[in-house]
Amino acid sequence: MDKRYTLPDLPYDYAALEPHYAARLLELHHDKHHAAYVTGANTTLEKLAEARDKGDFAGINQLQKNLAFHLSGHVLHSLFWRNMSQHGGGEPERELLDAIKDSFGSLANLKGQLNEAALNVQGSGWGTLAWEPLAKRLVTEQVYDHQGNIGNGTVPLLVLDMWEHAYYLQYQNVKGEWVKAFWKIVNWEDVRQRLQKVRTLDLGL
């Protein structure tokens, strides 16, 4: 059984999210940057297998860091594409909206908190809305790179890419405009379906 990671197809064509997300930006982001994380994850797994075969784990620290970085980059980007839609924006349906109100008080509060988390990432990273299964609530997280500063057990539902490669070609250094544009193409139905799947997650703790 081939367990290599593969680059997923986009659920829309390159121009589908314009004018909020330019076709050329989407093409580069998916075909080059995301593809590099897929390659990086597969290459690292091969090197780990080689280390096991040789019984030589001198490079284990770097290999584990590389796996976390590339695999998390692959997962977050795969989610990111589906979190956007040419039919997006507006407000979520009642089920998701009620969950948001339970955890944040209002949709406006969620947007404000997630905006600040995303805009204030130090260096490269993501702002995310995640499900925390222990308390069974929604939380925002500020992810460093692709894998740092997240709670163990949380499941990302909505992710906002704040790496410069995600927006610079179109928005340059005005990343606040990118964040505003994201809400106009956010796919709330995708987020609702993801929440529905994870609400029964039990960590056994």
Essential attributes:
205 residues, minor pseudopilin epsh fold, globular
What features would you describe in this structure?
- The structure is a single chain.
- The protein is mainly α and 205 residues long.
- It folds into two domains: 23-82, Helix Hairpins; 94-198, 3-Layer(bab) Sandwich (minor pseudopilin epsh fold).
- It is 51% helix and 11% strand.
- The protein is built from seven helices and three strands, in the order H-H-H-H-E-E-E-H-H-H.
- It has helices at residues 23-54, 60-82, 94-104, 107-119, 168-171, 175-185, 188-198; strands at 125-132, 137-144, 155-161.
- Strands 2-1-3 form a three-stranded antiparallel beta sheet.
- A hairpin with a 4-residue loop joins strand 1 (125-132) and strand 2 (137-144).
- Helix 1 packs antiparallel against helix 2 (60-82).
- The chain is globular and about 55 Å long.
- The two termini are 33 Å apart.
- The mean pLDDT is 96.
